[in-house]
Prior knowledge:
This protein is of the alpha+beta class. It has a domain at 99-226: Alpha-Beta Plaits (2-Layer Sandwich). 48% of the residues lie in helices and 18% in strands. It has helices at 2-32, 41-76, 82-95, 114-119, 132-144, 189-198, 200-212, and strands at 100-110, 149-152, 155-157, 163-166, 169-172, 175-177, 181-186, 215-226. A hairpin with a 2-residue loop joins strand 2 (149-152) and strand 3 (155-157). Helix 5 (132-144) crosses helix 6. It is extended.
Amino acid sequence: MRRFRRISLWRVGAPLALLCAGLLFATSATNARGTDLRPSRNTTLAGLVEEQSRRSASLVRQHAALTQDIEKLQAQQGSIDPALAKQLKDLSDEVGTTPVTGPGLTVTLKDAPSEVVKENPDVDADWLVIHQQDIQAVVNALWAGGADAISIQDHRVISTTGIKCVGNSVVLHGVPYLPPYKITAIGDRRKLQQALDDSQYIENLQDYVVKFQLGYDVKSESSISMPAYEGTLDLQSATVPGFERTPSASPTVSGR
């Protein structure tokens, strides 16, 4: 009698378990719709970077539109003294809040190709990618060459711009970007090129370009249209609670 009960439970339980498993697989297939439910880490990271970049760009455009509205409302309050208006324009040109056009150079930096990475498994991975200091070296060289304006990834660079690495992406004005990195400068093309050639850091970078095929390309441009800087100009610094900092001179900014 006991043996009969065990067999009966097995005959009933096994088909039920198979039915549940079939329903689970069918539900997963329907939800996936042919896509991978567990994408690779790199794919997820790249998608996240692109999504955050789009969101940040949208917020920057909204900020720029609101700033223009504020300027229009301020102009409606009354006419501005011509001398003051000229001074404001000159300062805007220096700061980088007005668009500019002119000849210049575009430098493009890229990580080593995937096949080079596979062929050199014992090489330090840091030698095969573009870093913050590589981008900064190009920017500093272009400033030293007398650049009138510089942009990275088509975003205007000003004196307070910070460039930093976060994972395998570079963050500019709080927005993450993946390679290739495009650095554009407006100015005398001959002087800009000479400044790049004279940079000791870029000379060192060229060694990795030769050894590991890192991307380093310089293109001469007869006419470049560069947008105005549209971010905030406010400077913020951290403070220690309960500690009163003594007034000091304004901090200096490396670069231009």
